[in-house]
From TrEMBL:
<feature type="domain" description="DNA primase/polymerase bifunctional N-terminal">
    <location>
        <begin position="12"/>
        <end position="160"/>
    </location>
</feature>
<dbReference type="InterPro" id="IPR015330">
    <property type="entry name" value="DNA_primase/pol_bifunc_N"/>
</dbReference>
<dbReference type="Pfam" id="PF09250">
    <property type="entry name" value="Prim-Pol"/>
</dbReference>
<dbReference type="InterPro" id="IPR014820">
    <property type="entry name" value="PriCT_1"/>
</dbReference>
<protein>
    <submittedName>
        <fullName>Bifunctional DNA primase/polymerase</fullName>
    </submittedName>
</protein>
<dbReference type="Pfam" id="PF08708">
    <property type="entry name" value="PriCT_1"/>
</dbReference>
<feature type="region of interest" description="Disordered">
    <location>
        <begin position="337"/>
        <end position="361"/>
    </location>
</feature>
Amino acid sequence: MTPGLGIFREHATAYADAGLPAFPVNTRAKRPAVKGWRQATTVRTRAWSTIEKLGAADGLGIVMGKPSRITEIDIDGVGEAWLALAVARFGETPITIRTASGKAKLWFRHDGERRHIRPFSGQPIDILGDGFTIAPPSWREDLGAAYAFLTGGICDVDRLPMIRRGALDAAFSQLPEAVTLGGRNTSLWRQCMVQARFCDDVEALLDVAATWASAFPEPLPTAEIERCARSAWSYQIAGRNFVGLAKPQLTEGDRIMDALIDRPEAFTLYQMLVRWHSGRQSFAIAPRAMSEAGSPPWSRHRIESARDVLLERGFLEELAEPSRIRRKAGLYRLAGRLPNSGNNQDTPSPPFAGGVGELIQ
């Protein structure tokens, strides 16, 4: 398969064979390439794939809800923490998808769910029981990457489970039905600021704003909703959105970066030691020999300084001291348990505690 050329033509039949009506999509614009996509059928899927212009599309769209029998949990935040949170909340599923931008999706059996954009306050998660999604192996030419199944595939659609019972209850309890008449603008603007970090463009943020505002007891004018969203987006693209800076901290890489962010050479040396010696009981660190070999390309003193930071902060354990008189390198091992982060760089704990099965409501 040549990325970006004929992806719809090449894969439409497989989707039709699985009972999934697909239609061609412009992945960069995230828009259907045909009119009448909501009325897609497997017959139309096969017909569209034979039309030269449509068959050459770089993406496949799937109608969510009744036509496909699928409800998608769209995780619009990058990182394992958000994926773990979604699985913990909604349940396990055989089909998980990685998007071209590195985000994730979960597919479940449709059970009457509707389309809800950002129903969980402060969480970049959409529930797609209507509308459409972009399916693997759609290609994003601008990103040079494809959508891909992380687990499962279209052959697993018939065994999809339903979303865990009660998983959506917290979403609807957080919608702003109780916002007072005078507080609608402030509430909407803050919500837009929080969610702007998880939106690819202002159009996506406008969709979020419209969903949030739809729950107000007294509706806001459309022009006011758009004004709030565009104002928040202007802060986001200017790098001045300090309302939505928090991101989940769960991975080991986040903790290492936070603890060593003020000593970048120690951080680099640690990454090199992990790559070279992960799994070994012990290893030598010989700063002079390492410097002469250009691995890393630093002076002996810089390597020694970085090593000492790792020892001081608990990333390394010294088994035998180096001896300049005897010209012996020191013997070390990687710490079995990483220290807690000493510098929290706007990376708070993820929105659940204990294990992934415990959620903070």
